[in-house]
## 1
Amino acid sequence: MRISAEQVREFCRDQIAHYKIPRYVCCVDSFPMTVTGKIQKYLLREQMSRELGLLEEPHA
């Protein structure tokens, strides 16, 4: 079963506040994982920034 980005946003409209609805929704087949099975969020962030053409903001 596949779900579209619009279906995710529509579901969120009925469940959460409007400002919490995700701006970007990407469906992926797999996540970058560590050897212990945790998602490598920094790699996921970098990958999505490249795909969406977003500039990375410096963190404090």
## 2
Amino acid sequence: MKKFLGTVFLILLLLALLAGAGLLLLRRQERAMLYHPSATVAETPADHHLRYQTVRFRASDGTPLEGWWIPCRNARATVVFCHGNAGNRSGDARWVPFFARQRMNVLLWDYRGYGGSGGVPSEDGLRRDAQAAFDAAAESAPGLPVILYGHSLGGAVAARLAQDRPAAGLILEGAFASARDMATRLHPGWPIGPFLSVRYDTAACTAALPGLPKLVGHSPDDDVVPFQSGRTLHAAAAQPKAFVLLAGAHDSRSWLADGGAGNAELVDFLSRCSKN
């Protein structure tokens, strides 16, 4: 009996070690898939004939953050831009002229671990970073409405920020419903979702924001975030909300081009969330 119990103990110990190793591997894979930071500056707003200044601020845990403040003359609102999971803020510099034409100030900024910001990315860390970015933008243009714009992973960051700060509107482009939803759609048949350490539950955040205007844009040809995940996100969101069909791949940003798919709806939304 003692030998039998010893054998059972060894088997259980081996299974526990294998499970622990599997969970550790899952954590590493999770981080590798979620965050792809870069310190390379691809371009700046100056490349698009816009003046800007580098701003530095800190998250509530002291993490140093960096961004670009791009002011607009006679601005009607300020847009806080939450970028995707790869690169850094410089990848979105080419889109700023669109917002300038709409008379919007823009804050492009880096999550911790990205671009010029310190630290290591994490779900809680990005939440803190977004709060600090909002506060920096509101301080730079006091009295103006602040509109949150999130692309891809930035959609989850922006949606959570909308719960933490008084935004005037929330724009989500190519965003997913949740990390679990993404895992289920990308790996059907594999029970990965329950073991994820992150939630990034964009759908739950938007469902908890009644009264806040929301615009969700997604392309049927999105090659990164499944179109149906965007549909699920929109369905879960509280009113008022609208869904717009975009065109092209994940980074095409069709509604940021004059006359592009979804452009008219986006321009109208920005106007409704701004000062006259």
